[in-house]
Amino acid sequence: MAAVVPGSGASREEEGTGGDAATPQPPAPTSAPGARLSRLPLARVKALVKADPDVTLAGQEAIFILARAAELFVETIAKDAYCCAQQGKRKTLQRRDLDNAIEAVDEFAFLEGTLD
User: 20 to 30 Å CA-CA from 51: which of 2, 13, 59, 112?
Assistant: First the structure.
């Protein structure tokens, strides 16, 4: 069984000597009109931030950074869960794959018990 490398979504056996050089990088953001820097709707992220009674002001830059951090988090946990699905010879993610990823990666320890 291959060990999952935290945060990378790849097992140590798959990583090889190239490390991160072998993984495709997302295209750099362009300044073309209509190009989106965030995949999450910033208005929804702002609404979530404003729903917190402890937050009084949230600048547009802070909203963007929170949206980008959420995107990276979802991408990371999805990749790790997909590795768990591949170990089970499946391509479709299931809840148990998320549970296995949460148990296997120390960075996700704060999520233990949240999907119950």
Answer: 112
